[in-house]
């Protein structure tokens, strides 16, 4: 058996035998559906990392290799939003200060600013675009203004050692570029989002700004596809369900972190997968596995 196969088998045993249980008022459930789904992915060679904690108590509801550093694609943009929000709160940046886009900022794929004619936008609007559509062009313009070094310093000040925004967004990554846009561990990502929800990142006002931008997110294609929410209108509870999340998508990468509140409880979760994205069935299997985790989370809070 190869080392890779042995590692896949080990993850599968962990995912299928470590049955994290949780209790919500009046009932007892398991996360067996999500564990089984992640276990099947691990057997097929997908690298999986996941964690969920109760928002009120901090109790770990389930975890699978949650300490492992994984590629997280656009999730690292949250760290940029933290730095921007902190500067707005301190007065170092004005929310109405216009920033111009430049040819060096151009990056395709995610976002809508690349399709608009307006050549400049206020800082607060750019942050909203990043939160709503993970806008790559807006990300690069904000990064050029605040600096990747400042984002890294802020990340370190928060005590994050396995989570980082590594680079600006690029259409093509060369040998001298960071191999990934961002990385993170499920452990640290759940802590970050729990702390944001509690108003503990920098200060309450800064945390609330970041939460407000992230509450615009319109990507419900992964874990959050199980929650039944309107991706374009969900800033107020629907059937008692309220979500703030961020997704990361790249070739072979599917990742999501979020805070889900319901009538019975609240939960913070992070699920990351890294796989050979060589066929549509392989990609769909990963997405379906992440949705299975979402169904368990929904049962916990609803």
UniProtKB/TrEMBL annotation:
<keyword id="KW-0378">Hydrolase</keyword>
<protein>
    <submittedName>
        <fullName>Beta-lactamase class A</fullName>
        <ecNumber>3.5.2.6</ecNumber>
    </submittedName>
</protein>
<dbReference type="GO" id="GO:0008800">
    <property type="term" value="F:beta-lactamase activity"/>
</dbReference>
<feature type="compositionally biased region" description="Basic residues">
    <location>
        <begin position="11"/>
        <end position="24"/>
    </location>
</feature>
<dbReference type="InterPro" id="IPR012338">
    <property type="entry name" value="Beta-lactam/transpept-like"/>
</dbReference>
<dbReference type="Pfam" id="PF13354">
    <property type="entry name" value="Beta-lactamase2"/>
</dbReference>
<dbReference type="GO" id="GO:0046677">
    <property type="term" value="P:response to antibiotic"/>
</dbReference>
<dbReference type="InterPro" id="IPR000871">
    <property type="entry name" value="Beta-lactam_class-A"/>
</dbReference>
<dbReference type="GO" id="GO:0030655">
    <property type="term" value="P:beta-lactam antibiotic catabolic process"/>
</dbReference>
<feature type="domain" description="Beta-lactamase class A catalytic">
    <location>
        <begin position="52"/>
        <end position="273"/>
    </location>
</feature>
<dbReference type="InterPro" id="IPR045155">
    <property type="entry name" value="Beta-lactam_cat"/>
</dbReference>
<feature type="region of interest" description="Disordered">
    <location>
        <begin position="1"/>
        <end position="31"/>
    </location>
</feature>
């Amino acid at each position: 058996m190869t080392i890779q196969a042995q590692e896949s088998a080990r993850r599968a045993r962990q995912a299928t035998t470590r049955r994290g249980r949780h209790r919500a008022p009046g009932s007892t459930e398991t996360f067996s559906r999500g564990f089984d789904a992640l276990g099947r992915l691990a057997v097929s060679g997908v690298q999986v990392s996941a964690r969920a904690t109760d928002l009120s108590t901090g109790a770990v509801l389930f975890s699978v290799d949650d300490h492992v550093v994984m590629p997280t694609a656009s999730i690292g943009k949250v760290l940029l939003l933290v730095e921007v929000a902190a500067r707005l709160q301190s007065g170092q940046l004005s929310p109405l200060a216009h920033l111009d886009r430049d040819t060096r900022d151009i990056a395709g794929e995610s976002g809508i600013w690349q399709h608009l004619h307006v050549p400049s936008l206020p800082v607060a609007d750019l942050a909203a675009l990043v939160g709503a559509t993970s806008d790559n062009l807006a990300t690069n313009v904000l990064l050029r203004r605040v600096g990747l070094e400042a984002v890294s310093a802020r990340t370190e000040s928060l005590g994050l050692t396995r989570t980082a925004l590594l680079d600006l967004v690029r259409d093509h990554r060369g040998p001298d570029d960071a191999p990934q846009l961002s990385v993170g561990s499920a452990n640290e990502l759940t802590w970050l989002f729990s702390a944001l929800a509690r108003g503990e990142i920098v200060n309450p006002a800064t945390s609330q700004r970041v939460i407000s931008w992230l509450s615009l997110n319109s990507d419900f294609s992964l874990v959050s596809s199980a929650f039944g929410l309107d991706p374009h209108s969900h800033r107020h509870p629907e059937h008692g369900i309220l979500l703030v999340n961020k997704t990361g998508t790249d070739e072979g990468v599917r990742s999501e972190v979020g805070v889900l509140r319901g009538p019975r409880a609240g939960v913070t979760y992070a699920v990351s997968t890294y796989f050979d994205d060589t066929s549509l069935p392989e990609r769909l299997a990963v997405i379906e596995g992440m949705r299975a985790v979402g169904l368990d989370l929904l049962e916990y809070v609803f």
